[in-house]
Write a structure and sequence with these properties.
4-stranded mixed sheet, 160 residues, single chain, alpha/beta, 8 strands
Length: 160
Amino acid sequence: MSHGGFTTCLWFDGQAEEAAHYYVSVFKDSGIGRVTRWSEAGPGEAGTVLTVEFTANGQKFVALNGGPEFTFSEAISFQILCADQREIDHYWARLTEDGGEGGPCGWLKDKYGVSWQVCPERLLEMTSDPDPQKAARAFGAMMKMGKLDLAALEQAYAGE
């Protein structure tokens, strides 16, 4: 693993390898790296997966089989900035499949409980517009949505 930057460690209870392969299948510019296994020194069962290094969307991660002590919460989420509705639809569908669930304002939880914000890049421009009314209309529309609808956001922003 190269020096510099950050590697995000995700703590799982036995699903580290499965989760790493799942995220690699969802995002482009992704791949599986080094896998480490528990040794005879434990505390995990010797030979079972301890960590899986992977890249998803060009970002470095390590999945750790740490046990049941800790679980994910919405206090940390990953923002996926999308170019268009097709990307929004892709990530929303893939990350809510097999037990994931959609939430409000473009947020969702995947089947492992990891929180994601599936957001069009354009929304950030709209909600930071120097015209406070345009920004407020876009923000208000977003607050009423689950999966974000870029066309409806654009209409609200434009005052249509």
